[in-house]
Design brief:
Layout lengths: L3 E10 L2 E11 L4 E5 L6 H9 L6 E6 L2 E2 L10 E4 L11 H11 L4 H15 L14 H14 L4 E5 L7 H18 L2 E6 L2 H7 L2 E6 L2 E6 L1 H6 L4 H6 L6 E7 L4 E4 L6 E2 L14 E6 L4 E4 L6 E12 L4 E7 L2 E7 L10 E6 L5 E4 L5 E2 L1
Parallel strand pairs: 3-8, 3-9, 6-7, 7-8
Antiparallel strand pairs: 1-2, 1-4, 4-5, 9-10, 11-12, 11-14, 12-13, 14-20, 15-19, 16-17, 16-19, 17-18, 20-21
Helix pairs in contact: 2-3, 2-4, 3-4
Bound molecules: adenosine-5'-triphosphate (ATP) and magnesium ion (MG).
Length: 361
């Protein structure tokens, strides 16, 4: 059981800063997800925690202990990678048992723990097979089993579910989260899948271009993204970002929309000068579309596309020169090309600086 903290950690490969000036803390027993696009530095960050990479600058701590000079094997961490190689000549049982065998754990204890872990991962019936007799997803579960069975201080996982099929992935998300809570083991989980991060993690660290953009609870990241980029990365569909010009008193001019949109809740926004270019951020579920005029921050639009998701309807609406996406009830009735009135839930509107992407609070 241990907390992990990174203080001003930078890792360069030649000229490339894969990780740059990252400060973050993973509390004891916490599930932290590192989320970001491909090439953002997620794996490098995880390898720095594991000790497989040495920071160019900065410090890594486990609890109060500086671990920069400590070898991976002495950090008591369990790693699971996307393509985690199993020993081909060993059965699934022996692969899972391996870390215990190495430590000369008594046979009866090994037998008990391996079977427990296998049960948990739904691979009890596969224990006699060798890796080549297992599917990719089954192999991955064996690799997870091997990580779990040794009861480390910290789990480090790099996209461990990406080769598992969709329904298994959803089941395993829940299992993994439950498991982590039961074991009370600190877990750092790398993913580029925002749904995975949102559903599993206590906290999400969003990283991009090697830099930490935001670290917060999933709900805070969803409700109050610090940058327009985070807003557009999280949510399915993600937050709408409508380019606009701030006039004054909560009036926003959107290209092609007459008159300007008036947002009462923004009328007291200070420090914004007239003419400032912004993005108006609004999540699809915070937009109401109706065929009749409605009160509130309203503008007119035209139905552009309708997409049924079974439990809801995604309605694309052309508003001026922008397309915005709203999530409506599945029985929403309109045809492509119909004129509609669009109302924003004003309390859920966000503004971002169009040039820097920073949230305007
Ligand atoms: N050993 C290395 N030598 C040189 N450059 C590297 C090395 N490892 C990573 N990089 C570079 O550092 C950056 C971050 O890579 P990293 O693997 O950490 O990204 P990632 O977020 O895990 O991406 P993905 O989602 O594709 O796995 C990339 O530009 C990558 O090319
Ligand atoms: Mg990676």
């Amino acid at each position: 059981m241990v907390s992990v903290s990174l203080k001003n950690v930078t890792k360069r490969f030649g000229d490339i800063a894969a990780v740059e000036g990252v400060n973050l803390e993973v509390k004891d027993k916490e599930f932290l997800s590192i989320l970001g696009p491909s090439g953002g530095g997620k794996t490098t960050l995880l390898r720095l925690i594991a000790g497989l990479e040495v920071p160019t600058e900065g410090e890594v701590y486990f609890g109060d202990k500086l671990v920069n000079g400590i070898l991976p094997r002495d950090r008591n961490v369990s790693l699971v990678f996307q393509n985690y190689a199993l020993f081909p000549h060993l059965t699934a049982f022996d692969n899972i048992a391996f870390p215990l065998t190495v430590r000369k754990t008594p046979k009866s204890e090994i037998d008990k723990r391996v079977k427990e872990v296998a049960e948990l991962l739904g691979i009890r019936h596969l224990l006699d097979r060798k890796p080549k007799q297992l599917s990719g997803g089954e192999q991955q579960r064996v690799a997870l089993g091997r990580a779990i069975v040794r009861q480390p201080d910290v789990f480090l996982m790099d996209e461990p579910l990406s080769s598992v099929d969709a329904s298994m992935r959803i089941a395993m998300r829940t299992e993994l989260k439950k498991l982590q809570k039961n074991l009370g083991t600190t877990l750092v989980y790398v993913t580029h899948d925002q749904t995975e991060a949102m559903t599993m993690a206590d906290k999400i660290a969003v990283i991009r271009n090697g830099k930490l953009v935001q670290i917060d609870s999933p709900q805070t990241i969803y409700d109050s993204p610090r940058e327009s980029w985070v807003a557009s990365f999280i949510g399915n569909p993600p937050m709408n970002l409508i380019p606009a010009t701030w006039l004054s008193n909560g009036q926003l001019e959107v290209s092609g929309v007459r008159p300007p949109i008036t947002v009462k809740t923004l009328s007291k926004k200070e420090g914004l000068s007239a003419g400032k270019k912004v993005y108006v951020g609004i999540r699809p579920e915070d937009i109401e579309v109706s065929v009749a005029p409605a009160d509130g921050a309203v503008c007119k639009g035209e139905v552009y596309l309708l997409e049924s998701l079974g439990d809801s309807m995604i309605v694309d609406i052309k508003v001026g020169n922008s397309i915005i996406r709203a999530r409506e009830k599945v029985d929403f009735r309109a045809q492509i090309g119909d004129q509609v009135f669009v109302r924003f839930n004003e309390r859920r509107l966000a503004l971002f600086d169009l040039d820097t992407g920073a949230a305007i609070s």
